[in-house]
């Protein structure tokens, strides 16, 4: 591959490193390897952490203006190498090249946002009740941050963590998913070019996710862990991190509902459904999983959605005409097949799709008349399947939407302003899309409630996740 950012090495303390043991990264569209990376160990991880801790001693005292300039320079370099980053992302994740380019832009918006927001970590002057002291607060970076990121957004899930951490004065040890690590290494190359000091940003590659994760979660030198992934793994990391009482941010699983009310603009709802469901082949944490449609518009919505889904182009992500790529791996495909088979066994009807095309490619699918006791109603499918349920009243629709232990994103369509406020306030989710199928924005807080996680990424709140408030009391 002729790509200056495609590097088959990990990044430690300002240097790209190799190891005798390696692992291959497979392109899910072709099932062929695109390259290999060092399969590093827990002992290697300890060295990464120590380097980050040593670098923190000077990085935390570096003026915020200088830290922000370096993050801004990284933003500029990502823009300059946008196409190279997108190519790497498509080859390792399978997502369509147009989506990869969009993700690079989205990921880079966090670099731009936090390069500015880092300058606004304001403290306060507090009135003293007794009047015999001067009270102030300041905000300081937590320390060494461990960032563990998933495969479905190989760059955006990294920059949402790394950008605020760096401007806050933290150093980072990043463990990217072993399915899609090359995007992280490409970012490390650009960070190196930007001039970040040694040890400030490190990328450890390994197939031993459990071992590396445990080391990052339990290390005394790591002050904060930020994880995006499954609720099951997040629960384990939370338990492990408790041993050192470290700060933790978790962005976990979802089971997003999409409600269509009787007075909704059906064409707009279908457009939002396509955008919110089929991005990255339905493999996103905020992907719509359950479609609840009010009975008066159920037939019309089903017909128009089915027509739109039939027109989606499935194929290799490197083709610019492709809209839907492959599933990430065999287990992901098998879960989709299992959910569809279960729904059909419980009375669902296939409106379109419903079968494997070849290898890891699955037809974009619409299922109608889905039973509430189907697996797809309670589990996140993570695939290109629309499951349609019918409801009668607003209260019933909201109740069905909230009937899940998760609460990351929710969506609904209505032209009634009063209903919009009512429903938005009642939905149990950290984020609500109102007449919108895409909701992510660097300036807005991203995160969930219930078992979808803790903390927020993006916005001013995302910066605070990487800072401690220190109270200063000046006596007279």
TrEMBL record:
<dbReference type="InterPro" id="IPR016161">
    <property type="entry name" value="Ald_DH/histidinol_DH"/>
</dbReference>
<dbReference type="GO" id="GO:0016491">
    <property type="term" value="F:oxidoreductase activity"/>
</dbReference>
<dbReference type="InterPro" id="IPR015590">
    <property type="entry name" value="Aldehyde_DH_dom"/>
</dbReference>
<dbReference type="Pfam" id="PF00171">
    <property type="entry name" value="Aldedh"/>
</dbReference>
<protein>
    <submittedName>
        <fullName>NAD-dependent succinate-semialdehyde dehydrogenase</fullName>
        <ecNumber>1.2.1.-</ecNumber>
    </submittedName>
</protein>
<keyword id="KW-0560">Oxidoreductase</keyword>
<comment type="similarity">
    <text>Belongs to the aldehyde dehydrogenase family.</text>
</comment>
<dbReference type="InterPro" id="IPR016162">
    <property type="entry name" value="Ald_DH_N"/>
</dbReference>
<dbReference type="InterPro" id="IPR029510">
    <property type="entry name" value="Ald_DH_CS_GLU"/>
</dbReference>
<dbReference type="InterPro" id="IPR016163">
    <property type="entry name" value="Ald_DH_C"/>
</dbReference>
<feature type="domain" description="Aldehyde dehydrogenase">
    <location>
        <begin position="18"/>
        <end position="471"/>
    </location>
</feature>
<dbReference type="InterPro" id="IPR050740">
    <property type="entry name" value="Aldehyde_DH_Superfamily"/>
</dbReference>
<dbReference type="InterPro" id="IPR010102">
    <property type="entry name" value="Succ_semiAld_DH"/>
</dbReference>
<feature type="active site">
    <location>
        <position position="251"/>
    </location>
</feature>
């Amino acid at each position: 591959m002729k790509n200056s950012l495609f590097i088959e090495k990990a990044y430690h303390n300002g240097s790209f490193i190799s190891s005798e043991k390696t692992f291959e990264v497979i392109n899910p569209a072709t099932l062929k390897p695109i390259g290999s990376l060092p399969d590093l160990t827990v002992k290697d991880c300890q060295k990464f952490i120590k380097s980050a801790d040593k670098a923190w001693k000077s990085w935390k005292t570096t003026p915020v203006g200088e830290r922000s300039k370096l993050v801004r320079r990284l933003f500029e370099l990502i823009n300059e190498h946008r196409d190279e980053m997108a190519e790497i992302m498509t080859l390792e994740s399978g997502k369509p090249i147009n989506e990869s380019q969009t993700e690079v832009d989205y990921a880079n918006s966090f670099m731009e946002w936090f390069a500015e927001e880092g300058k606004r970590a304001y403290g306060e002057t507090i009135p003293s009740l007794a009047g015999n002291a001067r009270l102030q607060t300041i905000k300081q970076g937590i320390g060494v941050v461990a960032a563990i990121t998933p495969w479905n957004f190989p760059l955006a899930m990294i920059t949402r963590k790394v950008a605020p951490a760096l401007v806050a004065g933290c150093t980072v040890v990043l463990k990217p998913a072993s399915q899609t690590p090359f995007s992280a290494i490409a970012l490390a190359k650009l960070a190196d070019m930007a001039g970040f000091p040694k040890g400030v940003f490190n990328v450890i590659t390994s197939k031993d996710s459990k071992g590396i994760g445990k080391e990052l979660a339990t290390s005394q030198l790591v002050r904060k862990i930020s994880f995006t992934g499954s609720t099951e793994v997040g629960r384990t990391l939370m338990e492990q991190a408790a041993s050192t009482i470290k700060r933790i941010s978790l962005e976990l699983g979802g089971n997003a509902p999409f409600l269509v009310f009787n007075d909704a603009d059906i064409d707009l709802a279908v457009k939002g459904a396509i955008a919110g469901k089929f991005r990255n082949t339905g493999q996103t944490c905020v992907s719509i999983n359950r479609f609840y449609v009010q009975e008066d518009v159920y037939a019309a919505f089903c017909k128009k959605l089915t027509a739109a889904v039939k027109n989606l182009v499935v194929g290799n992500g490197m083709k610019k005409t492709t809209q839907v790529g492959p599933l990430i791996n065999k287990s992901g495909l098998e879960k989709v097949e299992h959910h569809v088979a279960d729904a059909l066994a419980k009375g669902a009807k296939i409106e379109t799709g419903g079968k494997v095309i070849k290898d890891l490619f699955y037809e974009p699918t619409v299922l109608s008349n889905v039973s509430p006791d189907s697996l797809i109603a309670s589990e996140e499918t993570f695939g290109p399947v629309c499951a349609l349920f019918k409801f009668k009243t607003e209260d019933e629709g909201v109740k069905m939407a909230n009937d899940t232990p998760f609460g990351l994103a929710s969506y609904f369509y209505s032209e009634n302003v009063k209903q919009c406020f009512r429903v938005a306030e009642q939905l149990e989710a950290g984020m609500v899309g109102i007449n919108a199928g895409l909701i992510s924005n660097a300036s807005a807080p991203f995160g969930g409630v219930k078992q979808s996680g803790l903390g927020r990424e993006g916005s001013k709140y995302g910066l605070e996740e990487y800072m401690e408030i220190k109270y200063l009391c000046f006596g007279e």
